[in-house]
Design a protein that fits this description.
Length: about 300
């Protein structure tokens, strides 16, 4: 029987792992399909305290993992298939195996939001991507025009990164101002290689017949005018959706699938705690996720101590 199983190895999961390991709870930590979480796909992280020059996202997560392992966290490259929270102990199915645990920390993070039309899916990896850091340097995008969709920090970050490779980066946003933080927005708009296209949405991605991205179809939402913009890449950066599907109907969630936190990191189920982007529609920062991971570990430790009294 496990004391605690932690789902996810982003900032929240690994911080929870560090704290529960230091509390001698011998945590079992499941990476899922994306060890290190979304931050591993970021280039430079400039706003995590303690790194005045910034730190590569992958390196930050590798360091967090090492730190948790140093105190005994068992980090496994395994995926949660199913969960039964209706009984105590909690029963998990992990890569087909039954695992029983006294407590659970859900830190499953969030995934990329998709535009949702067919050609986006059909042309994925053929010019459509959700990660500039992963794919931006590919030969197919070198010295070619590319499109980034979105107006948040992610879109700005993707656009800035792509200026290293692309001939021009069109930033297509559905409004006339960016949602991104001021520093990111100013840097983005000051970059001569980035051309914003305001009040516009991508209505289709071409060309499925050629099996490669050749252009996007744009619609100006004020004038309804439709145009075709040639490009070789489409980088979708329109936000995230929480990775909570496995917990649907089992813990209380809001309408968008974020797990509802109460009294710190508690969920609607006794012994189940939550941390990070899967429960945070507001801040969604690496450092707030880490803070929530710490809180969940402390709440979990206190819960177990009270149970054994
Ligand atoms: P976000 O802040 O939610 O922004 C999503 C953007 O996509 C918005 O501009 C939104 O438009 C647009 N959008 C959403 N659905 C759309 C659709 N169907 N079609 C077209 N456009 C759509 O998401 P994010 O940029 O991924 O950022 C998430 C969080 O991570 C934020 O808290 C952000 O600060 C943080 N983050 C920080 C950094 C950093 O500090 N370096 C980097 C990346 C992310 P509207 O503006 O009209 O809503």
């Amino acid at each position: 029987m496990e004391n605690v199983v932690i789902i996810g190895t982003g900032c929240a999961g690994l911080t929870a792992a560090l704290y529960t390991a230091r509390a001698n709870l011998n945590p079992l930590v499941l990476t899922g399909v994306m060890p290190g979480g979304l931050l591993t796909t970021t280039s430079i992280v400039e706003n995590f305290p303690g790194f005045p020059e910034g730190i590569d996202g992958y390196e930050l997560m590798t360091r967090m993992q090492k730190q948790a392992e140093r105190f005994g966290a068992r980090i496994k490259f395994e995926t949660l298939d199913a969960v039964d929270l209706s009984q105590n102990p909690i029963v998990l199915t992990v890569d087909g195996e039954r695992v029983e645990t006294k407590t659970l920390i859900i830190a499953s993070g969030a995934g990329h939001r998709h535009l949702g039309f067919e050609n986006e899916h059909l042309l994925e990896k053929k010019g459509v991507t959700f990660c500039a850091t992963c794919d931006g340097a590919l030969p197919m995008f070198r010295n070619q025009p590319v499109v980034v969709i979105g107006g948040g920090d992610s879109a700005c970050e993707e656009a800035m990164y792509l200026t290293r490779f692309a001939s021009v980066v069109y930033l297509v946003h559905r409004r006339d101002s960016l949602r991104a933080s001021r520093i990111m927005a100013e840097r983005t708009l000051a970059n001569p290689k980035i051309k914003p296209i305001w009040n516009s949405v991508v209505t289709d991605i071409l060309d499925v017949k050629q099996d490669i991205v050749t252009a996007v179809q744009l619609k100006n939402i004020l004038s309804n005018e439709e145009t075709v913009l040639e490009c070789k890449g489409v980088f979708v950066a329109i936000g995230h959706i929480p990775n909570t599907q496995l917990f649907q109907g089992k813990v209380e969630m809001d309408d968008n699938g974020y797990v509802i936190r109460k009294n710190g990191s508690e969920t609607s189920v006794k012994g189940v705690f939550v941390a990070g982007d899967c429960s945070d529609p507001v801040y969604r920062q690496a450092v707030t996720a880490a803070g929530m991971g710490c809180a969940a570990a402390i709440d979990c430790e206190r819960f177990l101590a009270a149970e054994t009294k």
